[in-house]
Structure formats: C-alpha cells, structure tokens
C-alpha cells in the first residue's frame, strides 16, 4: 500500500514554478540567467499600501480575523466592484482568500462532484485543470489557437456544454496569452450561457487593469446581468498593485456559494494574513494613479517584446490586449536542430535548449494546453528584455 494519496496521480507540479525555480538554481550556480518565467510585476508595492501595513502592525492588527475577510476589506471590495464593473454586492456576497488561487480552489472544492465537467479554454493558466481534478471534477478543454486570437467562439462553447457541465472558466485578459474578450465577443459567450441555466461562470479577472491601446475590459456579469446569480467574479490585488507576496484574492458571488467557500477555508487555511488585508484596503480605497503608471510601462515593454520576437526566425508573436505575457508560436522552428544536433521536436525541447544555450528562462506552451508555443512574462526591466530578445534571436538563428 502506498503511503501517498491517489489524489497525487491527478495533479502535476506547476510548470511555471518549476521553470522559475530552475532558473534560480542556475543563477545561484553562477550562470548568467534572465528569467522571464514568473508572472509577477517587478515594481515595489506602492508606498501608501506599505505604510498602511506598517500602521496595522503598530495598531496591533496581528491576530486572527474573520475566516473570509475583515469587514473593512469586504466593503472596499463591494465599492470596487460597483466603481469599476457596475456590479452591486453586499459584504455577505464577498469572500477573501490567500490569493486568487485559493479563491478559485475553494469554489471548485465547494461545488464539484465526481463526473461534473468544467469547461476550460486553452491556452489556460496552468493551475485550472489540476484544481478541477483535485476537486474531483473533469476538465473539458476547448482549444483556441493563434488563428482565433486565442479566444474561444460562441459555437465552440455551445458544442462543449453537456448536461454534466457545472462551470466554465473565463480568464480575460489571459494568462498566458494576454488575449482579452471585448464586449461583443463576451456577449456572444454570455448569450450561449443564458441558454444553459445549469452552467455557472467563474470569471478570473486578475489582469483587469492591465489592458492596452483601446481595449475595454468587461466581465461576464457586467455584460449580462442575468448571469450574476450564477457567476463568481474573482479578482485580487497581486497584479494591479504589485502585491503578489501579500497573498490577497477575493470574489463576489451568490451568498450560498460564498458561505460554502467559507466553510472550505475554515478547515484549510482559515483567515488570510491580517496585515495583508489592511494593506489591501489601502490598495482598493487609496490613490489609483499607480495603475495607469504601471500600465504605461507594461505597454511599452509589450511593444518592445512583440517587435523583437517577430524579428526572430521561425517565431510568430501576436500582440496581446493585456496582462504582461506574450505567447508566440514556434511552429516555424519544429524539426530544426541546434548546433549540437538536438532536434526541436516540441516547445519543451525549445525552452530547455534555449535555457541551456542562452540562459533565458521561458515556459513551454505544453504547460498551458496549446503547443508549439512558449510564454514570456515581460514583467522585467527594459534592459533585461532587450538582452533576452537578442539572445533568443541569436539562438533561433543557429537552428538549422
């Protein structure tokens, strides 16, 4: 009898974390590494948020809190949803977790039974299918390739829905592609979902504020209010306010679901960090000018990276609408060989050979459910990005 649970057979370690850890290990060994694998802003958390955390510590706000969030934060989240998304929630419809990942996981654990299906567009964030599997559900993946702008169509969504479908997960702008669903495209999807009342919507809006050019962010319950009572709208402070390590995610949804998620959290982590919660209040209620400033930096970096990658032989890099990722295709490099004779058979081989040859760490597309691609996070300095693109261009030029 194995000591370890059979549950482990349904899940694999996060490839993004694995690649980031490998890059750190190589750097610690003295290698010249540029890691573009982690999805994390490279800016400091804004000063007023840091000051709010210090004030909370000095005021003794270091004890247990309510399991799923302090009242001040829940009210700030209600105000945020009303201000930014036109969604009206009361505090009883709000949950706060230790990052957006826990919020998503709690919802799946609270609702899925064996045989329940969850529709996940691919490319997807690496954790979606594994969280569904851990919760006992069945991931149903719909591929949306580069020719579709990495967005699923209404017809593809309709065809994937069965009597067993319980959730569909939508992520806009997307990790890993940066692709966003504009209002007309989102309405086409919500029209489908209105015809299937058994299907709930999990909207991962973590990159809401990181959108570029004239793209306008919308969330499903905003576009179709008729879906609000079966939508969990998930967000957090990690990406918009450079607070990844503070670990605060949140969601708004129906009271019954929020209570069930609270029950799961009460028997797992209990409350999120008390100090981080007070910092999140400052993030949501304080000055918002930081968002526009960081967005401008990310847009400049996006343009730099897209232009540079499209000058690399065999790479095709679309321009994303948001987030801080690009997801280029390497279809033009499959079958070529490195100077050492290694054949580029897939994107995993490409990523490993690129790392070995140049010290640039990226994440292979297979991890996100659509190959042959790779993901770059351009949450790095301009100098690092320019250097990395030069190294990638040189590597591609050596393949024959």
* Overall spatial form: globular
| Termini Cα gap | 50 Å
**Mean pLDDT, all residues:** 96
- Could you name the CATH class of the largest domain? Alpha Beta
Q: So, the CATH homologous superfamily of the largest domain? A: Type I PLP-dependent aspartate aminotransferase-like (Major domain)
Task: Quote the beta fraction.
Answer: 5-15%
H-E string: HEHHEHEHEHEHEHEEHHHEHEEEH
Helix-and-strand structural type = alpha/beta
The number of distinct β-strands equals 12
Strand order of the largest sheet: 2-8-7-6-5-3-4
* CATH architecture label of the largest domain: 3-Layer(aba) Sandwich
Q: Helix count, per DSSP?
A: 13
As a whole number of angstroms, the C-alpha radius of gyration is: 21 Å
The CATH topology assignment of the largest domain is: Aspartate Aminotransferase, domain 2
Walk me through what this model shows.
It is an enzyme of class 2 (transferase). With 400 residues, this protein is of the alpha/beta class. The protein folds into two domains: 6-44 and 290-398, Aspartate Aminotransferase, domain 1 (Alpha-Beta Complex), CATH 3.90.1150.10; 63-285, 3-Layer(aba) Sandwich (Aspartate Aminotransferase, domain 2), CATH 3.40.640. It contains 13 helices and twelve strands. The chain has helices at residues 15-28, 47-58, 71-85, 100-111, 127-134, 154-160, 183-194, 220-223, 255-266, 274-285, 289-309, 347-358, 382-398; strands spanning 34-35, 94-97, 117-122, 138-143, 165-171, 200-204, 231-236, 249-252, 325-326, 360-361, 363-364, 374-377. Helix 2 crosses helix 10, helix 4 (100-111) packs parallel to helix 5 (127-134) and helix 4 packs across helix 9. The protein starts with 14 loop residues before the first helix and ends with a helix.
